[in-house]
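Checklist before submission:
- one chain only
- standard amino acids only
- sequence pasted in full

Submission:
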Amino acid sequence: MTDTTENRLPSTDTTARLGMLPIDGQTPQGATVTATDDDVAEDMPATTPKIDSGTVSRFLVLLLALVNQALTMFGHPVLNIDDTTITQLVSLAWTAGSAIWCYWKDNDVTKAARTKKARLSARHAA
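Returned file contents:
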């Protein structure tokens, strides 16, 4: 059995049915599709938004981890933490995270949640 391009590539009528462009980059009518600068300029906002604080903090944590790993590889540990301390920190983080999550989910903390609960209570009472 021979493997030809006809067996591997979709035909023009197949791509037209699926709404895809053919492999050669032409539309089924034969016109070439090109993007203009006007198309790109319409979608771009006038000003670039600032980097949010979450992105900066994640980058700094990653940078600290990479520097610590590199220094540890060369025998100069910056964060000298043993296994027991790591276990305790993970346990503390897990307990604190689950406690905060359970409190948030089971209690209406935000103003919007309390308003929604009051509306639901009024609807069920009627």
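Reviewer check: Residues 83-106 form the longest helix (24 residues).
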